[in-house]
Amino acid sequence: MFEFEPGLVIWTSVSFGILLLLMYKLVLPPLINMLKERERTIAYSISSAENERKKAEEVLAASNKKLAEAEDVARKMILEARAQGEQIKQEMLKASRKQAELTLVRAREGLYREKEGIILSVKSRMADLILRASSKVLSKKVDKAGNKKIIEESISKWGR
Predict the structure, then answer these.
(1) Which residues are within 8 A (CB) of 131 and not within 5 positions of it... i.e. 6 or more apart?
(2) Whole-angstrom Cα distance, residue 87 to residue 101?
(3) Rounded distance, CA 55 to CA 25, Å?
């Protein structure tokens, strides 16, 4: 089964040692260099990713700040527009009231003039009627101009 052969063990050990030494000198340095290069590449990628993440966070923060500023500006514009609308509404109401008051004053003045005209017309006709009635009663011709003046004065005193 198993026999121990010292020569085979020595030569196998020497062959294994030489193989190990050759691998240590020829294979291990390029392998170590490749692993170090891979480690540097991974570290660089991680560093780049971290920098890109920071830049993205800064851009996001700047965008959020600009968005907040834009919302503030929009809110202020809305408030100003509402205030201007309310001011215009108040000015229009004030102008409408002023125009209505002016129209009412003009209407009252017109009515007053109309009333005065009607009163003068009624007084004049009344004077004519009284003059006709007086002339019929007296059955004589009365001087229209003189008597009319006396009658109008009488009516004026009576009308007040």
Answers:
(1) 142, 144, 147, 148, 151
(2) 21
(3) 45
Calpha distance 30→67 (Å, rounded): 54
Q: Is 4 helix (H, G, I), strand (E, B) or coil?
A: coil
**Which residues have CB under 8 Å from 133's CB, separation 6+?**
none
What tokens does 11 get?
A: 């030569």
10 Å CB burial of residue 88 (0-12, 13-18, 19+) is: exposed
The whole-angstrom separation of Cα 46 and Cα 38 is: 12
Q: Are 127 and 152 in contact (CB under 8 A)?
A: yes
DSSP letter (8 states) at residue 144: H
The full set of domain ranges for the chain reads: 7-159
- Whether 151 shows a pLDDT value over 80: the answer reads no
Q: What is the pLDDT of residues 2-46, one digit of tens each?
A: 788 888 889 999 999 999 999 999 999 999 999 999 999 999 999
Q: What is the pLDDT of residues 126-140, one digit of tens each?
A: 877 777 777 666 655
